[in-house]
Design brief:
Rossmann fold; 4Fe-4S; about 35% helix; Barwin-like endoglucanases; about 15% strand; 6-stranded mixed β-sheet; molybdopterin cofactor binding; binds ligand MGD; binds molybdenum atom; alpha/beta
């Protein structure tokens, strides 16, 4: 292993006893019932429930406990004994709760009753479901259709999501922004442009056959820990792993499998990355170009020596377009530019290139480190360029692997949650439900936030999530969110978005996927789609946290019935009684993807919806896979300037997005606080700061607007110069809503231009 991999800050490998301790610490804090272990044993298995956390796929041959530290925490978080009911709200006004931390808000436990905000007292008060639906329906009828937004975070199953999108369209708009607008929208738009697929191209078996993984800005140890199992297997059979990440992430350094008793007793670590390259934030375009340059040079040498080609020339000729122009750019770009823009040495990039060339089959894995940049689309196009050079897409053991976030974030898109009309079979909707679906594109998150700021968006319904805390320009967002006519939040736990109620505001508490969803025809199952486009059924068996809870699907149909004019084709009651009827509708709308849906939903590992790019069928404009010539060498929209830093917003090991489980980021050695600013020692010294000093960050975005976050303690961390780190969501006050990926409008959360101020 190259000796550039060490983790001075971290506290031992990913997984291992640290992972078990961390699960049980949350267990203690969230106090779930003892039957919790029985529940965990059913997680991610046929006949069990699908994890409420991330979208990592479920293998056919599952482990005795098919869950990870992250999933176990998420399940416990839902199964807590704590309750946040009407009594709690009698004791606390929202003004008071605004002073609470995200962690403390969610620690109050599961929401138990529908709640209405009372402006006279500044408190939420208990309401009935009927009252909630009727009032919401009446207000929606009154509002201008275009001024209403139907947001969803990727939790809800396919059935509720399909009906939610139908509700929006039958109401009269396509305003269906989703959490992926802040996340993998760059993939949906960028990957479609170059390979014609909005999702990744690999399946589980490819993980077992690949010779090398190239990781760009994805952190499996924290965010998709079950990925560490196939990575460990891959390492055992000699596969290579090369990682590009400004931060040394422990899960990409070493792993002790907490499900392997021998490994646990012996502390047997598997080294994960063979080479770990600390690229600067936003420097991946140059880094990937450097690898491509190594490949082209090796190909030139092979041609000169009469050896076999390094480029897959047959594949390139048959399947791609744009090759010549791209190669010209590769040849013309000097190493000095590549080194400057990536922050890496030529030798290191050549070593990565040699690994790439030596591998017959390569998988390119990526996450937020590529997507959340001003040129996120270019980042993804560059990764595709690299893979195409050696035919590494649409072949066994090779492909493109964006790792998705929420458990059903990909699936919600598949069944119609999308603001772009071209993605939706509107003719089918018309045929099935006998109404004219709206023809105008709806709002993306960025448009929705800007609409709130401009006063054109007047109401938001949220199917899950914590939008106010997840978007940039949070200070403005708090003001304009509360100025809306109506805010409706379908939630499991209390969060900051609830504390800025609109003129009329409702919290509607829903079941978690672990819980029994009893309807007239019995306990209902739901389905979700994972990152590999596999669809799996899920059945909850726990007693619901409160008798008052309704399923997400029942809440959607409750609102729909109270809002829409009668249409005999919209059978909200029937669908609520029996979710299999909704699956029939999904199958009728998307027959190629969901054939024999009800029969196949419990197949081990889920059933595969298929992917054309996986079969080398390219649904791009050119009907080929596209080589993209980069127009710049980094992923930023700003230049370096004196005193300006690139701020990465990070996830700790102890959070799921805006849900903060605790204050232990043990892989990075940060305990008891999230109010930190990570910088390399050289930058600390050059800026005249010292470790332990408390500083503020201020925005250095082109609009010149004042945005500030104070109270951050400077900590030395192994980072590239010029790149600094702080936590998401706290740092969202520093980002501008206009600072986003050019192509897809995904907020650029991984290189926010900031200055450091010490008072
Ligand atoms: N425990 C836990 N699990 C989660 C989540 C969670 O919050 N907690 N969130 C879920 C969701 S919604 C999502 S989308 C996924 C997110 O999972 P990831 O995609 O892993 O997201 P992040 O941790 O935000 O960032 C990934 C990595 O990018 C690196 N990075 C930052 N900037 C750059 C760059 O310019 N270049 C490169 N190469 N790397 C960079 C960071 O150091 C980090 O290691 O995880 C899901 N799973
Ligand atoms: N600066 C910065 N900003 C970011 C990111 C970043 O890396 N940096 N990441 C972005 C990404 S990748 C994402 S996906 C977004 C996340 O944005 P969101 O999806 O909006 O936020 P979450 O934190 O996942 O939402 C948490 C809330 O969801 C509710 N919830 C939990 N489980 C359920 C359920 O089963 N059903 C329902 N109805 N509600 C439930 C709970 O009330 C909980 O408080 O944030 C984005 N924002
Ligand atoms: Mo995400």
């Amino acid at each position: 292993m190259a000796d550039n991999i060490s983790n001075p800050e971290g506290k031992g490998p990913a997984g291992g006893w640290g992972s078990v301790k961390s699960i049980f610490r949350i267990y203690g804090e969230s106090s779930p019932p003892p039957a919790f272990l029985e529940t965990l044993s059913r997680q991610n298995k046929p006949g069990g429930f699908m994890c409420v956390s991330c979208a990592w796929p479920k293998p056919k041959n599952y482990h005795p406990f098919e869950f990870c530290e992250n999933g176990a925490k998420a399940t416990m978080w839902d199964l807590t004994n704590s309750r946040c009911g009407p009594d709690f709200f009698k004791k606390h006004t929202v003004e008071e709760l605004k002073g609470w931390k995200d962690h403390d808000l969610e620690m109050t436990g599961r929401l138990t009753h529908p709640l209405r905000f009372d402006h006279a007292t500044g408190q939420y008060v208990e309401a009935t479901w009927n009252e909630a639906f009727q009032k919401i329906g009446a207000t929606l009828k009154r509002l201008e259709k275009k001024s209403v937004v139907f947001y969803s975070s990727g939790h809800a199953g396919l059935e509720a999501s399909y009906l939610y999108a139908l509700l929006a369209r039958a109401y009269g708009n396509n305003n269906l922004p989703q959490s992926s607008n802040m996340c993998h929208e760059t993939t949906s738009v960028g990957l479609t442009k170059v390979i014609g697929s909005p999702v990744g191209t690999i399946v589980w078996e490819d993980l077992e056959k690949t010779d090398a993984f190239f990781f760009f800005g994805q952190n499996p140890g924290t965010n998709s820990p079950r990925f560490l199992h196939p990575l460990q297997e891959a390492k055992k059979r000699g596969a290579k792993i090369v990682t590009f990440n400004p931060v040394i992430e422990q899960g990409l350094v070493s792993f002790v499998n907490p499900q392997n008793p021998l490994d646990m007793v012996t502390g047997n670590e598997t080294k994960i990355s063979d080479q770990y390259l600390q690229v600067q934030a936003g420097g991946d375009v140059a880094a990937m170009l450097g690898i491509c340059k190594t490949v082209v040079e090796a190909d030139d040498a092979a041609v000169a020596a009469g050896r076999a080609r390094v480029l897959d020339v047959d594949f390139i000729a048959e399947h791609t377009t744009g090759f010549d122009k791209f190669i010209e750019c590769v040849r013309d770009t000097p190493w000095s530019d590549i080194v400057r823009e990536s922050g890496l040495t030529e030798a290191d990039l050549r070593e990565a290139g040699a690994t790439y060339i030596a591998a017959k089959r390569v998988i390119g894995v990526y996450g937020m480190g590529l997507t959340q940049h001003s040129q996120g689309g270019l980042n993804i196009a560059m990764l595709v360029n690299l893979l195409l050079l050696r035919g590494n897409i649409g072949r066994e053991g090779a492909g493109c692997c964006p790792v998705r976030g929420h458990s059903n974030v990909q699936g919600q898109r598949t069944v119609g949650i999308a603001e772009k009309t071209k993605l939706i079979p509107m003719d089918k909707l018309k045929e099935l439900f006998d109404f004219d679906p709206p023809t105008e594109d709806g709002t993306h998150i960025v448009d929705a936030v800007k609409g709130m700021m401009a006063g054109t968006i007047r109401a938001t319904i949220s199917l899950g999530g914590n939008l106010l805390r997840a978007v940039p320009d949070q200070v403005d967002m708090e003001r304009v969110w509360a100025e809306q006519e109506l805010t409706v939040m379908v939630s499991t736990k209390l969060n900051r978005s609830h504390l800025f109620p609109g003129k009329e505001a409702w919290i509607l508490p829903c079941l978690s996927r672990t819980e029994i969803d009893m309807q007239a025809t019995g306990n209902q199952s739901v389905t979700t789609e994972d990152s590999f486009s596999h669809i799996s059924g899920s059945i909850g068996k726990r007693t619901p946290a409160s008798k008052q809870l309704q399923s997400e699907l029942a809440i959607v149909t409750g609102i729909a019935k109270a809002t829409l004019d009668h249409n005999p084709k919209l059978k909200w009651d029937e669908w609520t009684r029996d979710y299999s009827l909704v699956r029939n509708l999904i199958e009728a709308t998307y027959p190629d993807d969901f054939k024999h849906y009800n029969q196949r939903m419990f197949e081990p590992g889920g059933f595969y919806r298929g992917n054309d790019a996986h079969d080398r069928k390219w649904n791009t404009e050119e009907k080929k896979a596209v080589f993209t010539t980069p127009h710049q060498l980094n992923a930023l929209s700003f230049e370096d300037a004196p005193g300006r830093f690139r701020l990465i917003t990070m996830r700790s090991n102890d959070q799921f997005n805006t849900t903060i489980y605790g204050y232990s980021d043990r892989f990075r050695g940060i305990e008891g606080t999230r109010d930190v600013l990570l910088m390399c020692p050289e930058d600390i010294a050059a800026a005249g700061l010292r470790e332990g000093q408390v500083v503020s960050l201020v925005s250095d975005f082109e609009d010149g607007k004042h945005r500030e976050l104070g109270g951050l303690t400077v900590r030395a961390h192994k980072l590239p110069r010029g790149t600094i780190g702080g936590y998401y969501p706290e740092c969202n006050v520093l980002n501008a809503i206009d600072h986003h990926d050019e192509m897809s409008k995904t907020p650029a959360s991984k290189a926010i231009p900031v200055k450091i101020v010490s008072h």
